[in-house]
Amino acid sequence: MENTNAAARHASFTLDGTRYSYLDLPAMYGEAYFRLPVVLRLLLENALRNMRDAERDAAVAALFGWLEHGTSEAEIAFQPGRVLMHDTTSTPALVDIAAMRDALAEAGADPGALNPVLPVDVSVDHSLAVEAYARADAAALNLDLELRRNAERYRFLRWASKALSNVRIHPPGTGIMHTINLEQLATVVCRKNGPDGVALHPDMMIGTDSHTPMVNGLGVLGWGVGGLEAQTVMFGMPTLLRIPDVIGVRLTGALAAGVTATDLALTVTQRLRAIGVSGEFVEFFGPGVGALPAGARCVVANMAPEYGATTGYFPIDGETRAYLRQTGRPESHAALVQAYAERAGIAYDPNAEPRYTRVIDIALDRVGMHVAGPKRPQDLHPYTGTKSILQGLGFTPRTAVGGLPRHAIAIAAITSCTNTSDPRLLTAAGLVARRARLAGLRVPAWVKTSLGPGSPAAARYLKRAGLLDDLAAVGFDIVGYGCTTCIGNSGPLPAAVREAMAAGAVHPVAVLSGNRNFTGRIHPDLDLGFLMSPPLVIAFALAGDAERDLGREPVQTAPDGRAVHLKDLWPDEAEIDAALAAGQEPEDYRGAFAVASANPAWQALQSPDTARFPWDPASTALRRPPFASLDEAGQLGRYTARPLLVLGDDVTTDHLSPASAIPPDSLIADFLVERGDKRDDLNVFASRRGNWQVMMRAAFYSKSLVNLLCPSAPVGHTRHAPSGRIEPIWEAAARYARERQAVVLVAGERFGTGSSRDWAAKGQRLLGIRAVLAVSFERIHRSNLIGMGILPLRLPQGVTPATLRIGPDDRIEIDAAATAMAPRAPISVRILRAGGKTEALTAVAAVETGLEVRLLRMGGVIPAILSDTINPAPPHP
Known about the structure:
Layout: E1 10-15, E2 18-23, H1 25-35, H2 38-50, H3 53-69, E3 75-78, E4 82-86, H4 87-106, E5 120-123, H5 138-149, H6 151-163, E6 167-170, H7 177-185, E7 189-194, E8 197-202, E9 204-207, E10 221-224, H8 227-234, E11 239-242, E12 246-252, H9 261-274, E13 281-285, H10 294-302, E14 311-313, H11 318-326, H12 331-344, E15 358-363, E16 370-372, E17 380-382, H13 386-391, E18 409-414, H14 417-420, H15 423-438, E19 448-451, H16 457-464, H17 468-473, H18 495-502, E20 509-512, E21 529-531, H19 534-543, E22 556-557, E23 563-564, H20 566-569, H21 573-583, H22 587-597, H23 600-603, E24 637-646, H24 653-656, H25 667-674, H26 692-698, E25 717-720, E26 725-728, H27 729-738, E27 742-747, H28 759-766, E28 769-774, H29 779-787, E29 791-794, H30 801-804, E30 811-816, E31 826-832, E32 838-845, H31 850-858, H32 861-870
Parallel strand pairs: 2-8, 4-5, 4-9, 5-6, 9-10, 12-13, 12-15, 13-14, 18-19, 18-20, 20-21, 24-27, 27-28, 28-29
Antiparallel strand pairs: 1-2, 3-11, 7-8, 16-17, 22-23, 24-30, 25-26, 29-32, 30-31, 31-32
Helix pairs in contact: 2-3, 4-6, 8-32, 9-10, 11-12, 15-19, 15-21, 26-28, 28-29
């Protein structure tokens, strides 16, 4: 290998009469380059293109040094080319920016100086609720309701798109952000015009949603970050990461007939969680990769956060090129992508065996039909296993109501970008519906059905294939184009289910094609949910009973008395191929997106034309947040704190900051009603992320969250130690603040698992939490904590909330001086027991980079951005 400090070497080629140049990494580094996983080759290209001098040379040396052990403690800067957000992560980020502009103006600086320097695409997809369903006009009704409920917030987004440079909003109805990324935004290879022609480089990006890795299925390197980390990137700071461990997943064989991409994704999730993947990059390689079309790869890549990974990367090949053509990209661009990938050494090679930190093998021909649940995506079962699983729960009805089975299916949703972005899966679901329709089957009345595709193009190809009417005939009308049920916007449960639940007659279940099934995720009143493929959702919906072994028992009895089994409904591969061929037209993707983008109702929303946003003091949707201030300071130091909460394992971001419907009988509802909102139309928590007063009160509001300081306390309550009172968490926190008493939080394993929502950390900062002591942290939430100036501390091996037995009157002393803070620094912690005994332990700062140290010292992302705007660094020579 040549000297890793060698200057970047460019090469060129001509295609269709245009000369293109690129970094010729294969020529620069030879055989060693191809020993790197493809994801590290991409990080190498990014470092060479964006870093300078000694920093660049150190990054290159560290990347090749990784080859010796397959791991490294060295840091590398990553500069993405674009940022992708959705409405409920962009709203708080843009609210922060609006408030920072106010802070700059009040300090005598130019508020207009604060602008994103990278392109920021915002998809309005997280606010669509399933109110109307099983009717032809459901999508129009739901969209109208969404626009009415969220008009104030949407006008704010339109203000941001006008007031801020580089911000583009994709309105409701255009689809789910990750599907838009696949079908509209991803270029796979980027072009940049320069004096020497057109320079090429890989398309690399980040998104403020944990499922951003879906685009990895096209060979685009991207991953999810917290909204706070995204703010640092959009204002020009690189994101620093430790050079990742890379898990190689060798795929062999091909999927058997009838087995779907969903089944493979669930299998991968189970296998990788079983070996403890937590933040590593995952790369798929081996001959089996070539047997998967790009749509299937994207399904597997999408679930990277469920299997604990940062990425789920598939290299570029002919299937990538085919996907670009299928979605309306010019053939010339598809050819350019392939030509560049081959020359740059990042194309798929079925015989390649790069160096990986660890390798696992998955034989595609051994993957079967599966479901996952009923509470975690990694809990994998044969599709026939729901009956035994539910019987094992031992639920005994107190009475019988309305003829519902005891494990009635309350919600059956074909939802989420995860599976609806793959036309093959939706087509298979449509064919199951067609066979069911021909047999005279209909979904039972107690099942709430919905079809929420990731793209409006889906309606076109399903209609052209004749499947839209078949889906509607069994209850699966399109309810809109957004995240819907997957994100918890499932709307109210059917009245029959609510009545049966109130009578203790049923323990209802959700079945969905989404990616998460945590307790309360799908609906606040549902704690059981199974993930499965779209065609299997149709079958279970027809059964109406989750306690049904569909491998042996009939799905339903037809009107003529014939027992209809799953095998009678399941399409063969040739049938799916024929329907796909009949339905697909490349121009649908651009055409449907353009029509949805021009929605007159969206265009009619009026918004201010000012550099600063005019806050409405009466608003319950948008409030200037107190932490967007030049007065914010770091929280490091030596202090003695009270435990505000003590929690167990698997605390999700849904626990920390719920996104679903605001319960009308909650204290949060009382707060909103006192300010003029209607109790029967409060919308979802996610719609209030622009109002810190609501979100602070919503922190930890979850029926399934147990606060070990007072396990029997009402939802959202804790114990204020000095008074002994059980009171709402925010009231206890405010009382501690008045008493000048620091507070911390203690938790178990996988703290913050789930989504990228920054309010899961912002809520904790507003409650005054200075540190979180946990057994382990999920990657994005750990980053968000640091982004809010909260110190994440990993407890020593073997120390858990159960072994600590923290009582409400105990105190915790932490010695985390700002001057001593460093990545993975040991932190002295002492437990001061109420009885006078002291226990000492050494935690580890869950801090990975020097940039994170800086953010903690400054108090978080926002003070750092404000400081850098007022005192910009001199340009690099």
